[in-house]
Specification:
single chain; about 270 residues; alpha/beta; Nitrilase/N-carbamoyl-D-aminoacid amidohydrolase; 6-stranded mixed sheet; about 20% helix; binds acetamide
Length: about 270
């Protein structure tokens, strides 16, 4: 299977320019079974006011951005996961969509919102689900979901081979942590980050790329630059993500002791 990422700099509020950029890059990308595009790829990231989301978000799957991505999925004969600013009635979600040559497949709404996202978006309510993409089991998460190992685990115990992780990283921990997520679940993880500086009123962020694919042994199969628009596709071996034995006597899922983890599913007050 051939999987990878597209790293680019979305322009805040310019959906047409963003899909044009994505189209230009994807058309020069090697053929793929699955490509992952960053979080909020239609809209950009920094909102100063909730009203700004009205014109740059869209309903899924009827919206402009999703339909342009479906055209690209058909043209490339591959599947696309992309972050998207979703509108549903009066509410907004930080979502990602899974699309293929046959059209719209599904969406995921970010469950763990980061910082000022909480001012604009509703948190998603799952469920965590894996999808069959040409025999490969794919799960979707968005950015800050990475810091909750329970999120990746919830997908991995359903047989996920590949995590499609659309991100707009503002801290520097994620890329290293995804090696651990890959090892502890024996999965491939595709982390697709954006680049560039974004400013809106007094708010400023610098996104530093380094999109990557990690393998079940925790190695990076490829990593992008900190500041260039680029795409990379690598070959992966599903036998590796399906072998959960790490020694003759250690199977990472059979050895789990859920009875010992009961505190994890209680709603504690912190
Ligand atoms: C993030 O969740 N975009 C940091």
């Amino acid at each position: 299977m051939k999987v990878g990422f597209l790293q680019f700099q979305p322009i805040l509020g310019d959906v047409e320019e963003n899909i044009d950029k994505i189209s230009r890059i994807i058309r020069t990308t090697d053929s793929f079974d699955l490509i992952v595009i960053p979080e909020l790829a239609n809209s950009g990231y920094i909102f100063a006011d909730r009203k700004e989301l009205e014109n740059i978000s869209e309903e899924i799957p009827s919206g402009f951005f999703v339909n342009k991505l479906i055209e690209l999925a058909k043209e490339k004969d591959g599947y696309i996961v992309s972050g998207i600013c979703e509108k549903k009635g009066d509410l907004f979600f930080n979502s990602s969509v899974l699309l293929g040559p046959e059209g719209y497949v599904s969406k995921y709404r970010k469950i763990h919102l980061f910082d000022r996202e909480k001012l604009f978006f509703e948190p998603g309510d799952g469920p965590f689900k894996v999808y069959d993409v040409r025999g490969m089991k794919v799960g979707l998460l968005i950015c800050w979901d990475w810091i909750f190992p329970e999120a990746t685990r919830s997908l991995a115990i359903q047989g996920m081979d590949v995590l499609a992780h659309s991100v707009n990283l503002v801290l520097s921990f994620c890329q290293n942590a995804m090696s651990t997520r890959s090892i502890e679940n024996q999965i491939y993880a595709i982390t697709s980050n954006r680049i560039g500086k974004e400013t809106n009123q007094e708010f400023k962020l610098h996104f530093k790329g380094n999109s990557q694919v990690t393998s079940p042994d925790g190695k990076r199969l490829v990593q992008a630059s900190t500041d260039k628009e680029e795409s990379h596709i690598v070959s992966i071996d599903l036998e590796k993500s399906r072998n959960k034995w790490l020694s003759d006597r250690n199977h990472i899922f059979k050895d789990r002791r859920p009875n010992m983890y009961k505190l994890l599913i209680e709603e504690e007050e912190f």
